[in-house]
């Protein structure tokens, strides 16, 4: 199992590393890659919604209002509750 994963932000041409077990929002903040909107940091507001285009991940408990089931099926996640299990390619929503 890798100690860290590479997170490539496709529509911003940015890349950063995320430690194993860390969520992809906090790792981006830690590394000063401020491309994902932040809000509650607890899976409730939906500000950090992004789409995963490639890779494996685990999504923690999130508000169904912030992330409806249909959006999950399309690959949308809440970055503050998403932990990578492989390198990921993500896309920032709204761009
Ligand atoms: S920051 Fe509020 S759901 Fe992620």
TrEMBL record:
<dbReference type="InterPro" id="IPR036010">
    <property type="entry name" value="2Fe-2S_ferredoxin-like_sf"/>
</dbReference>
<dbReference type="Pfam" id="PF00111">
    <property type="entry name" value="Fer2"/>
</dbReference>
<feature type="domain" description="2Fe-2S ferredoxin-type">
    <location>
        <begin position="3"/>
        <end position="95"/>
    </location>
</feature>
<dbReference type="GO" id="GO:0051536">
    <property type="term" value="F:iron-sulfur cluster binding"/>
</dbReference>
<dbReference type="InterPro" id="IPR012675">
    <property type="entry name" value="Beta-grasp_dom_sf"/>
</dbReference>
<dbReference type="InterPro" id="IPR001041">
    <property type="entry name" value="2Fe-2S_ferredoxin-type"/>
</dbReference>
<protein>
    <submittedName>
        <fullName>Ferredoxin</fullName>
    </submittedName>
</protein>
